[in-house]
């Protein structure tokens, strides 16, 4: 008796149970890596009192007046203290003496023209500013202030913050090592082009930095076992991703080898279209994610399972489901018929004005219709019918 298919959630739960974040090390902070521990500021932001404007640094003033200009303070120069009756011309970001009880008068409030020019002998202040325009040391971030939690992605914004706060190294999960293996004698012989391998490599790269090894393998069990061994011992892979050979046919080598020699192996059907045949196992401790071979099935399965698997490996917050990810509501640009089995439908998105989602043009997409994928920007999970003009949830790629 054939076992009932697992739901997408049931299969995801099984798969995520064999996945763990990669180890962490102390390394220069780098965009795309993930923090393994909380990170706190090592220096203040701003690091010292400085000017918020181009203008003139003056002692406290009671009203409009004319002052003698005694020098310039460009950004990066030592601070200068103006005496009563004097001012220094100062640039944005230039140092102000620590705790100086005065103000920066914007150049627009004076008789001096903005922009480059010789140092004036005097400056006439027409209007006093409403505030002092001095950024005080630590007014934004103080040393010891926590900047980020563990499992936080170092993106461009956080990278700028960390470096500004003197954090140039931090414990971060290392970059994962991933081996992609496209299986099938037809690929090795050249009878069919290998599209899955490069596609999966591109999808892995799109999720963040990764050291990727891409291989092909025929349908010989001994050969596949050797390739898997090399992925673990030579490439030290944190994740092995295969495509093809996951059903129960005579030449489904991935299913055969991993079911017989892998650990915690599961192969079977998941209630989804396309990509019902799925599998996973451990090979010498390394998780192996086994995707179907038809290109559309491999593509949607990678978005459902490989993308969240990589989030776990990278040390990001563990997703609760295959669709625990950013989503948007869109207006259906065409009818989406009901599907008795959840249909993972790639959609063409129109972002001009209200977001509109439509199936790719042409006949209803099948697992081999790889030519329908270009131009799609996300997928919908279809069970109930959605009529044109109604709303549906889209999960962007």
Provide a count of the helices: 7
| Approximate strand percentage | 25-35%
Strand order of the largest sheet: 14-13-15-18-17-16
DSSP strand tally: 23
* Uncertain runs: none
Order of helices and strands: HEEEEEEEEEEEHEEHHEHEHEEEHEEEEE
Mean pLDDT: 96
Structural class computed from helices and strand pairing: alpha+beta
- Gross morphology is elongated
Rg over C-alpha atoms, rounded to the nearest angstrom = 30 Å
- Give the CA-CA distance, first to last residue: 37 Å
Helix content: 10-25%
Query: How is the biggest beta sheet arranged?
Result: 6 strands, mixed
Quick structural summary:
This protein has helices at 8-16, 156-164, 185-188, 196-206, 221-233, 253-261, 295-314; strands spanning 24-28, 34-35, 39-40, 50-51, 55-58, 65-73, 86-90, 103-106, 122-125, 134-135, 146-148, 169-173, 177-183, 211-217, 239-243, 263-269, 277-283, 286-291, 328-332, 343-350, 356-358, 376-382, 391-396. It is an alpha+beta fold and 397 residues long.
């Amino acid at each position: 008796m054939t076992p009932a298919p697992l739901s997408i959630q049931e299969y995801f739960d099984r798969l995520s149970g064999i996945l763990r974040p990669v180890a962490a090390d102390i390394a220069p902070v780098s965009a795309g890596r993930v923090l393994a521990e909380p990170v706190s500021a090592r220096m203040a932001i701003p690091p010292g009192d400085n000017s918020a404007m181009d203008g003139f640094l003056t002692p406290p003033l009671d009203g409009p007046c004319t002052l003698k200009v005694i020098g310039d303070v460009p950004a990066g120069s030592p601070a200068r203290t103006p005496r009563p009756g004097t001012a220094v011309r100062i640039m944005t970001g230039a140092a102000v003496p620590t705790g100086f009880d005065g103000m920066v008068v914007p150049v627009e409030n004076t008789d001096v023209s903005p922009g480059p020019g010789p140092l004036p002998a005097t400056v006439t202040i027409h209007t006093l500013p409403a505030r002092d325009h001095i950024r005080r040391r630590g007014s934004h971030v103080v040393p010891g202030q926590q900047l980020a939690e563990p499992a936080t992605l170092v993106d461009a914004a956080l990278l700028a913050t960390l470096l500004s706060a003197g954090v140039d190294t931090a414990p971060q999960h290392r970059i994962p090592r991933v081996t992609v293996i496209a299986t099938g004698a037809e690929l090795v012989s050249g009878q069919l082009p290998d599209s899955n391998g490069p596609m999966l490599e591109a999808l892995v790269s799109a999720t963040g930095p990764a050291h990727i090894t891409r291989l092909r393998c025929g349908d010989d069990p001994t050969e596949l076992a050797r390739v898997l061994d090399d992925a673990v011992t030579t490439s030290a892979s944190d994740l092995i991703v295969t495509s093809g050979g996951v059903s129960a046919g005579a030449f489904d080598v991935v299913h055969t080898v991993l079911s017989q020699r892998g650990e915690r192996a599961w192969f079977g059907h998941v209630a989804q279209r396309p990509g019902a045949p799925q599998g996973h196992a451990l090979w010498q401790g390394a998780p192996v994610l086994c995707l179907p071979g038809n290109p559309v099935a491999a593509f949607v399965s990678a978005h459902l399972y490989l993308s969240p698997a990589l989030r776990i490996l990278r040390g990001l917050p563990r997703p609760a489901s295959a669709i625990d990810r950013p989503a948007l509501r869109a207006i259906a640009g065409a009818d989406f018929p009901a599907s008795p089995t959840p249909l993972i439908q790639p959609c063409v998105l129109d972002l001009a004005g209200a977001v509109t989602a439509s199936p790719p043009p042409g006949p209803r997409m099948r697992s081999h219709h790889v030519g329908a994928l270009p131009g799609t920007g996300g997928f919908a999970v279809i069970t109930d019918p959605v009529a044109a003009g109604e709303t549906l949830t889209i999960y962007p790629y």
